[in-house]
Amino acid sequence: METFNFISISCANILGIMMGIVLLIGNSWRWKRNDRENTLLIFMLVLVIMTCVCEPAAFYFGGRPGRVYRIVMYACCTYTFASNLMAAASWLMFLVYHLKGSISRLHVAFVNAIVAAGLLVLVINLFHPVVFSIDPSNSYHRLNAYYAYLAADVFMLIDSFATYLYIRLKGRRLRFFFFWVYSVPVLAGAVIQTRFYGISMIGPCMLISFTGLMSSIQNEMIFKDKLTGLYNRYYLDQLEEEHKQDRDGVYTFLMMDINDFKSINDNFGHLVGDEAIINTAKILRKAVGSQGAVIRYAGDEFVAVLSTKSDIDTDVFIANIKKGFDDFNKSGTAKYDLHVSMGYDVVDLCKSTMDEVMNHIDKLMYEDKTRYYKTHAQRNRRRDEGNT
Question: Model's pTM, two decimal places?
Fold first, then answer.
């Protein structure tokens, strides 16, 4: 073991561990939300912190004779390969959940197969070295399959980038979340560590990536509604700003308002009213999917920005929205039924201001609301009494 190299490796990884612990503590409020997105974030963060522990440990015990040191070497090196592979796959799935996109079952199965095959080869490597070997003096050596693991990691990074582009361009999402803040440091660490044998960069670089990732997510929070997790009105301002000089500013805008929402608040209380808003948000998010963005505009008003100008596509979205509310009402899971009025039109943001767009579809929406109350006499009476 070279003392200078061990000190440099230890310093880099200790800084990485400190950075990881700070990220865990500093984002403790986020971990309380037990959803798949945050579960993946914690999983990846713990994987990388442990990598920063294993890398200097393997270097410290390398070249020391003894069976215990040999076991530690195999354990640390095997874990490092496995964690890099699992982190790459987890990053892909995190992107899908975070961007509210979707990938096919075949795609997921293919990624899982790569991870499963990689883990199986690492088990085989314990008995028949193909990825790395530990010689009789307990020194580590790369073998040919090392580059297969590197290729698998790079492939999943490229796959993640392609998935990110597909989801973002399909829904024409705004760029609040930047892919490169995670991918570039990870890729740089992998290239440097592969090129210069005997240094440790992957773990610390991955934690630099996490710092950028968490900063990017925090930046997104400015544009998110706290109650529903949907975008807020600032998203529309940003959308308008982005298309001031853009010729491709054509979208379909839908404005929706919950019918008879005040009666839900009056009859069941504001907590149930909040629940109704959250359920409405879930229905709209599911109906729109990765084809656009859903915004909580104000109170019980929502806006969907769809990346289409086709009447046929719009009719499909509207049918999906109506079906979502019908399914919810038939399920009987709530004390109330949910119905929305809609107003929509195809708009070119290069020719109209956002205020003009909102006023236009708001007028159309209230025309639909008037028609709704004409066909629902009981609700119309409640509205006349002040419960709109």
Answer: 0.73
